[in-house]
Design goal:
A: 200 residues; alpha/beta; 2 domains; four-stranded mixed sheet; B: 276 residues; 60s Ribosomal Protein L30, Chain: A; Phosphoribosyl-aminoimidazole Synthetase, Chain A, domain 2; three-stranded mixed sheet
């Protein structure tokens, strides 16, 4: 399903808000947004990017035609928000808010969590998203033992989201080596779309 | 800003800031009001004026009059007059090599205001930035009086890098900024990443980008926060290096908690801003 949205004459943040409303309401796989200023072009493209759309922009006169596509054969590694053939497939989201599993011995806890991440791939294609928040973000940075495991999962098409506020808090924004930096809106949206959410 | 009382406070703090940035003491003010009397209840105007008046009291400023006109768009500001010894006027110029730069309020209020407009900001961050914008730069100005401050400006519509560029232009020197030491609201990074960046930030960037060298580690989102237009932002103070830590500690001791040393003046490259 494709749809067009004319946001000419609107100032930020209106174009982003209208785009957001549109894709949330109709679960679109393609959207075309027309804007007439640079700021709106940049903001709408950025927003669609965070919603897993592949974005292209064409300038016609003083207007910008922004096209966002997702969930088609063009990007098999991206999770599809509007799956067709695999609509039966469950979506499991794992939220990791710590760098250790359970309480008690810290050394044991970090070994357990590493082992957990290694074993996660046994969930198969139902493993949909891994979200790292708070101390969990330390698993996705330069030098982390779990990093190769996360990269492997990413290679298999699992989306890895790492909380930007948390990275910034720990001064690790530049050290993140796996996944995409994300925000609370994305995390909440992912929770809503997931069939089950596992909290660690 | 939806609350008229806070709107009045913030507008007044913003207007008073210029005098503080020069190292002066504001003494009198005139209200300047444009009000859509046909569409808005007059009680809104009363609350705005009350907010402004409370800030004037806090600043020790006397309201001596004003002008009101009818206009479709609400506007409120002050014309402020202050005192300063002619030998002690601080301007944007007069940087010296080695000087440290101190920024006194976190960046990101423009982006967060955009998120507030879109009803996407949390109450917590809304309250936090509202209070910060309504905070006078009075204490900062008083504290810096006792230190060898060479130049100062206040951060408003051109954003941090825009106002810094004004300082650097024509100075004959450059500056180096440590991006990770610049105080900012983490929420601003979050909102900027989802496309909630005000048009002014892009314009500021376009206007001054030719002067700025970003290290590859300074990503686009962070760059947008550094160019984000601020309302009633902090002061950017250029102080002799040997007293920079002392000034910073004195500011913190007086409650200017978010102040931080963000960079230094360098001899080369001239008139460029390096952000790393």
């Amino acid at each position: 399903m494709s749809t067009e949205l004319d946001c000419r004459g609107l100032a930020c943040p209106a174009p982003v808000l209208q785009t957001k409303q549109k894709i949330e309401k109709e679960n679109l796989s393609e959207i075309n947004v027309i804007v007439d200023n640079q700021a709106a072009k940049e903001n709408v493209s950025r927003f669609l990017g965070t919603q897993k759309f592949d974005v292209s922009v064409e300038q016609k006169g003083t207007d910008f035609y922004i096209t966002g596509k997702r969930g088609t054969g063009a990007t098999p590694s991206q999770p599809s928000a509007a799956p067709q053939s695999d609509s039966e497939k469950k979506k499991i989201m794992v939220m990791i808010a710590t760098d250790r599993m359970g309480r008690g011995d810290d050394e044991l806890g970090s070994k357990l969590l590493f082992n957990f991440l290694k074993t996660l791939k046994e969930m198969g294609p139902e493993l949909w998203r891994l979200v790292f928040v708070n101390n969990g973000v330390k698993l996705a940075i330069e030098g982390a033992e779990a990093l190769p495991v996360l990269k492997e999962l990413e290679g298999e098409g699992v989306t890895i989201l790492v909380c930007g506020t948390c990275l910034n808090h720990f001064n690790l924004l530049e050290k993140k080596k796996a996944g995409e930096t994300t925000n609370m809106l994305d995390i909440v949206t992912a929770m809503q779309l997931a069939d089950s959410v596992i909290n660690i | 800003m939806d609350d008229p009382y806070w709107f009045g406070q913030i507008a007044a703090a913003n207007a008073l800031s210029d005098v503080y940035a020069m190292g002066g003491v504001p003494k009198t003010a005139m209200n300047l009001v444009a009000f859509p009397a046909k569409d808005m209840d007059i009680s809104v105007l009363r609350r705005i004026i009350e907010g402004g008046l409370d800030k004037m009291r806090e600043a020790g400023v006397v309201l001596v009059g004003g002008h009101t006109v009818e206009d479709p768009e609400l506007k409120y500001g002050l014309s402020v007059t202050g005192y300063i010894h002619p030998d002690r006027v601080l301007t944007k110029k007069n940087l010296k090599v080695g000087d440290r730069l101190i920024l006194t309020k976190p960046l990101g209020t423009g982006i967060i205001a955009t998120a507030i407009k879109g009803a996407l900001a949390s109450q917590e961050i809304t309250d936090k930035v509202t209070r910060a914008m309504a905070t006078l730069n009075k204490v900062t100005a008083e504290v810096m009086e006792d230190y060898p401050v060479h130049a100062c400006t206040d951060i408003t519509g051109f954003g941090f890098l825009g106002h810094l560029a004004e300082m650097v232009s024509g100075s004959g020197y450059g500056v180096r900024i440590k991006a990770d030491s610049v105080p900012l609201y983490p929420e601003a990074l979050e909102y900027a990443a989802t496309g909630l960046v005000p048009a002014g930030a892009y314009r500021n960037r376009e206007f001054r980008l030719f002067m700025v060298d970003f290290a590859p580690t300074v990503n686009r989102i962070l760059q947008d926060v550094l160019f984000d237009p601020q309302t009633s932002g902090g002061l950017l103070i250029c102080v002799a290096p040997e007293k920079a830590e002392d000034l910073l500690n004195a500011l913190k001791a007086k409650g200017v908690q978010d102040a931080a040393i963000v960079g230094e003046v360098i001899a080369e490259p001239k008139e460029r801003i390096i952000v790393e």
